[in-house]
Fold this protein.
Amino acid sequence: MKLMRFTLLAVLCVAVFAAETPKSAYNKATLEAYLRHLLVINPQVKMEIGEPKPTTIPDLKEINVHLTFGAASQDETIYISKDGQHVLRGDIYDIARSPFHGDLQKLTTQGAPTYGTPAAPITIIEFGDFECPQCKVEAQALRQNLVKTFPTQVQFFFKDFPLESIHPWSKAAAIAGRCVYRQDANAFWDYHDWIYEHQDEIAKDPSTLKSKILDFAKSKNWDTAKLEQCVDSNATEAEVASSIAEGKKLRIDGTPTLFINGRRLVGNVPWQNLKQLIDFELEYQKTAPKAATKADEKCCEVKIPSPLNR
């Protein structure tokens, strides 16, 4: 009888202890199972959960979740309450800073091809892929309209972000583009426009990419020997890799991705929407100059109705 009572008591204690020990998001296995269900991530996708890091908000920890599937990768940032009982997704904003402060801290323009007005009030940075059809559409709209509509108010920068896992000749095109840029910064934009214009033609036979580039270079009277040597030696590969690395720090996973004074826009945004956003930003800087600084605080926050709702 005593043994039975002891056994029953032990079972009750275990049951009570289990009931009093709730699941915690700080348990990586628990968190992974939860996120796979939440985000509909199948078992073939590898998930790496980082260690908790402090945030600017007391009792809230940040965790990076890195997803990989073959050559493709994606990062998610989640936040966990101190007790491990609540998981949050989204962005944290500091009301004293631009809502785009985090991205602005990571964006660089040094050495990037550019056109427009230096030190203009609007800076647009594009991460693009020469094999991406949507980049082609976006690029043509920008080249046709940006300077014509905003002759002194905008400076545009191009950053390479070839998506090699789906666009096999995009990195080679980016390396060649940087070789052209080394010869003549202005000539880069001739190359940029030409390669998008001939994107479909190149896609039919990517093996002709180099010969087509050299033929185009001859038509522009560029130094083809120097260009060919640069392309063959992959002399600018490190420059492309640096741009890719910056894009990954920004957690870019699609092209085109544009930043208008830090505001992130993913995918092909129609020109009329871009124009509204630029106009909105220009007006914001006129009416709230103290809220914006050249180095960091170029910002605005659009609420409904908004040109973002395309």
